[in-house]
Specification:
The chain is of the alpha/beta class. 38% of the residues lie in helices and 25% in strands. Helix 4 packs antiparallel against helix 5. The protein is elongated and about 75 Å long. The two termini are 30 Å apart.
């Protein structure tokens, strides 16, 4: 993949005691919604603060639109809107006063979109800025960031303090911004919102990137888990035997050799097992491309139901951490 609109290269910031970020490399492409997923203290905010030019790396570099945020912050900020993880407003009486200052800073003269955001989020900008609830402060920060209509949005836990209904409204705003061609980098520890709006996601833990994956591939290419209920134990046993004897489907001789070597992963045959407690049920996992063959193998057998699930982002995330613990 080519260098992105936001490019992180071997970024390291070591605070000692295994705190910080270590040798992080990421590329966020233009027009992409990129999620940054990790637990609290995993290194999400440290990465973002480097993107904003608030921190100087110990080693490595960050480039935003080809510019170094630490050395060229004013130029970088011309294209970037930012929602911080910890919101601190200037000493102003109301949200309206804050938006006026923000508009002057951003050079905003048309307030149509700002007013649209205020209405959509149900925000009362005349409220006292210091006495706002956490949720109201978060809404104010969102409006202040998006009203600039810039091409890059960097957001650190942007839904903190929002109720579930307002969180969905915010995610709809993210979808709107994506349609405009915005490039969005969004950290979170909430699996559902990352899976809902992001194109790709990087998983970070203990300051290191554990994986970068396509959400499309997660939804379409990860193994499907099936549980088929038959009318009798004998039918379940027959089906399990059919699966075990099913030959691999191969596109080439090389592919066939690989397929046979990795049969349990690719075909799922050895994983097709009759449930011990409910002997009329068979469970197995197969790649999405093999789903049709597995279902057709039930032909002639008395099937009562077929239940299908697939690995979601939360399960993928937890599997990575379980594997790390085992190692």
């Amino acid at each position: 993949m080519s260098a992105g609109l936001i490019s992180v290269r071997n970024l390291t910031k070591d605070y000692g005691d295994n705190r910080g970020v270590f040798d992080i490399s990421l590329d966020i492409q233009e027009g992409e919604v990129f999620g940054y997923l990790g637990t609290n203290g995993s290194g999400k905010t440290t990465t973002i603060r480097h993107m904003m030019g608030f921190l100087k790396p110990d080693s490595g570099e960050v480039l935003v639109n080809g510019l170094n945020p630490w050395k060229q912050a004013p130029e970088v900020m011309k294209d970037v809107s930012y929602i911080p993880g910890e919101i601190a407003f200037p000493d102003l009486p109301t949200g309206t006063d804050f938006f006026k200052v923000q508009a002057q800073f951003l050079g905003v003269k048309d307030f149509t979109y700002m007013n649209h955001l205020i209405d959509l989020l149900g925000l009362d900008p005349s409220a006292n800025l210091k006495r706002m609830s956490k949720g109201m402060k978060q809404k104010t920060a969102i409006v202040a960031a998006l009203m600039g209509d810039k091409k890059i949005l960097i957001m650190d836990e942007p839904t903190t303090g929002l109720d579930p209904l307002m969180r969905e409204t915010f995610l709809e705003l993210v979808r709107e911004e994506k349609k405009k061609g915005r490039t969005i980098f969004m950290s979170s520890h909430i699996f559902e919102e990352i899976e809902d709006v992001c194109d790709r996601v990087a998983i970070i833990g203990n300051g290191k990137i554990k994986d970068v994956l396509s959400l499309y591939k997660l939804r379409h290419d990860t193994p499907r888990m099936f549980r088929i209920t038959f009318a009798s134990e004998a039918a379940a046993q027959e089906y399990a035997q059919r699966i075990k004897e099913m030959p691999p489907r191969c596109a080439s001789a090389a592919g066939c050799a690989d397929h046979l070597e990795n049969a349990s992963r690719r075909v799922g045959a050895p994983d097709a097992v009759v449930d011990e407690n409910e002997k009329a049920k068979v469970s197995f996992a197969v790649p999405a491309a093999e789903t049709d063959r597995m279902i057709k193998a039930t032909k002639g057998l008395p099937v009562i139901s077929v239940d299908e699930t697939h690995e979601d982002l939360e399960e993928y995330f937890m599997n990575i951490y379980r594997k790390e613990i085992r190692q």
